[in-house]
Design brief:
Length: 87
């Protein structure tokens, strides 16, 4: 199972704020986001691995590596419209 693999590799250096925001994203959406990242090396969508997250203006900025070519990829996840988790 892919989920098991992701869990095993988990070393996510998310900032606390990014972690909280990322938690508000439904699991199915997360998967979609991580598997459809634009990669300049592949000239198309690719899967992001080894990603970390930081918070910027209420959104989560994911930075990781393309699973196909190893190029660095970045994806902004707009969560600022979602209700804050604990405020
Ligand atoms: Zn790539």
């Amino acid at each position: 199972m892919r989920l098991a693999r992701i869990r095993a590799v988990r070393k996510r250096p998310f900032t606390l704020q990014a972690e909280l925001l990322w938690h508000t994203v439904p699991a199915s959406a997360k998967e979609q986001i991580l598997k459809n990242v634009f990669c300049g090396g592949c000239k198309g969508s690719a899967e992001m691995i080894d990603y970390s997250g930081t918070e910027k203006n209420g959104d989560v900025v994911l930075e990781g590596v393309c699973a196909k070519c190893g190029r660095r990829v970045v994806r902004v996840v707009e969560t600022s419209e979602a209700p804050p988790p604990n405020n």
